[in-house]
Amino acid sequence: MGVITITGRAGTVFVRNMKMNKFTSESPDRRSRLFLITRFFFTAALILIVVSCKQHSQNFEPFIVSTNDGIMAVHTPTQQSMHAQQPTSTPYQEPRLTMTPAPISATPTPMIPQTLPTLRVNEDLYTIQSGDSLAGIALLNQVSVRQIIDANDIENPDLINPGQVIIIPPASANELATSFRIIPDSEIYYGPSVKDFDVESIIWQFNGKLNWYEEELADGTVLSGAQIVQRVADEQSVNPRLLLALIEHQSGCLLSRNEDCDLEKYPLGLVNNNQQGLYKQLSWAANELLLGSGLWQEALLAVWTLADGDVMRIDASINSGTAGLQHLFSLIQGKSDWKKTVSETGFFQTYNELFGYPFSFSIDPLLPEGLAQPDLILPLAEGDVWLLTSGPHWAWGTGSAWAALDFAPPGEDDDYGCYASDAPVLAAAGGVVVRSEGSAVVIDLDGDGYEQTGWTLNYFHISNNSRIPAGTTVATGDVIGISSCEGGVTNGTHFHIARRYNGVWIEAGGEIPFNLGGWVAESYGTVYDGSLTREGVTVEAYNGRSEINAISNP
After folding, report:
1. Which 3 state secondary structure label does DSSP give 39?
2. How many Cβ atoms are within 10 Å of 126's Cβ, its own excluded?
3. How many angstroms separate the CA atoms of 129 and 136, rounded?
């Protein structure tokens, strides 16, 4: 495993683990303690706060493309319109907006203000310890690096020494951010309100540059703009309607037909040479939306540090959906721009002009009270001895809930890294395979054909040659494929399994713990560290081959 410290904006540090899942022969006690700061960001549950009556999305169909000949003109395509992806072949239909925007028919759900960390009202003195950075010190003290530099006349923020005493300015002196709520909590997730949302059709109707955009990914795959949006939504379970609104707000490319419109480099506004192109930029944005929402739900931050080093105190009366957006925009905007973007005349206005009033789409709560996991088996063939290589960790990226567990297949003592195994991976429950692509297999447990509703099981790193086809109905214990080194960032053969309900990633070691045939997951408070326990027997996660992480069905 490698640990990367990201300091992409003044005053903020994220210590994130890039999982390599390569087996080592090291003792489990040497698992890195650097993940402790990550736990500061993420704790057990991604449970939406609900304090009022249940709301449903309104009874209207805003995403239907009309096929009425009187509405859609049939004509010979112009040179420009030939670029546009056409949902139908012949006759050609000129793209025209036919969807109905959501009416103002619901107001934000009343809620109790969040209890945020207490902000210091006085200066503090801090003695720098070995391994400290100004970014880390600033984050833990709810101030920015710039504020620490100014308070201490530090010439070079990269040169600080253990034993050096610095002044930490008070965090409470910063300006209070707006209380304006931008979107409902449910609008972050790829959930029930967008189960019928046709990404390609909507992009085609708006008919901007995104409609004919194509991009080649690092693996040589060429995807259209619609395919990129759909892929990011599927991977991270983030609402594609929200992603389209972000693209339009940041680049204008959903509506603009100007070929100079920037989808090739920095369409979401993150200026980073390693994050160029729509797919990387949109993946980054989706990850940060989930991160910001999670930070709010766990009440782990009281301030946002903006891209220019200014700090804004978070208003306790916003909601987690709004917090996700405030966090995202804090990474790429200075104070003046940020304050406008998170106001009624900023991103909210863009969203409203595209799709209508966002709170009309609210489904509250996404996770109903008393939610329980359905019966699942340990998805391993009887007699096969597998390895629990990772305890609760991110379902995708580093912004989602710690919803996943990793298992490596049987092998010889010297099998490490990427090795071949024909040990089957089983369906932990019966259902319908609703998606099977790119090393991912998703089983819809309620059988309605939507992965945005009810419980789903999400497998990853299933070899493409072995993946069970989409549309297959499976019974508990059926083979769904073979684990591999394919997909994502990994150099160790394994499979990754996570759960979602109504599009929300469910913490593996949280209030509804992963229960695989009586093996109940527990998180040890550090990403990847945890265990499975059944009838008094505990199997500990270990990124290697050992007796302590061996697991099997009798």
Report:
1. helix
2. 15
3. 11
* Residues 386-551, CATH architecture: Distorted Sandwich (2.70)
State both tokens at 161.
């020494």
Identify the bridge partners of residue 519 per DSSP, sorted by sequence position: 516
Is the Cβ–Cβ distance between 278 and 286 less than 8 Å? no
* pLDDT digit string (tens) for the chain, length 554 residues: 333 233 333 333 333 333 334 343 333 333 333 333 333 333 333 333 333 333 333 333 433 333 333 323 322 233 333 344 444 444 666 777 777 788 887 777 677 888 888 887 888 999 999 888 888 888 788 888 888 998 898 888 888 889 999 999 887 778 999 999 999 999 999 999 999 999 999 999 999 999 999 999 998 999 999 999 999 999 999 999 999 999 999 999 999 999 899 999 999 999 999 999 999 999 999 999 999 999 999 998 899 999 988 899 999 999 999 999 999 999 999 999 999 999 999 999 999 999 999 999 999 899 999 999 999 999 999 999 999 999 999 999 999 999 999 999 999 988 889 999 999 999 999 999 999 999 999 999 999 999 999 999 999 999 999 999 999 999 999 999 999 999 877 889 999 999 999 999 999 999 999 999 999 999 999 999 999 999 999 999 999 999 999 999 98
Q: What DSSP assignment string belongs to 289-335?
A: HHHHHHHHHTT--SEEE-TTS-EEEPPTTS-HHHHHHHHHHHTT--H
Pair of tokens at residue 316: 């306790």
| Domain range list for the chain | 81-111+178-361, 386-551
Question: CB of 25 within 8 A of CB of 544?
Answer: yes
**CA distance linking residue 41 with residue 505, whole number of Å:** 16
Sign of torsion over alpha carbons 454, 460, 466, 467: positive
Residue labelled with tokens 């005493």: 165
Q: Is the pTM of this model over 0.85?
A: no
Distance CA(134)–CA(10), nearest Å, equals 10
Tell me which residue has tokens 């960032």: 489
Report whether 185 contacts 319 (CB < 8 A).
yes
Closest CA to 331 of 289, 386, 389, 283: 289
Burial class of residue 383 (count of CB atoms within 10 Å of its CB; 0-12, 13-18, 19+): exposed
Angle CA 297–280–242, to nearest 5? 50
DSSP state of 476: T
Give dist(CA 186, CA 110) in Å, integer.
15
3-state secondary structure of 550: strand
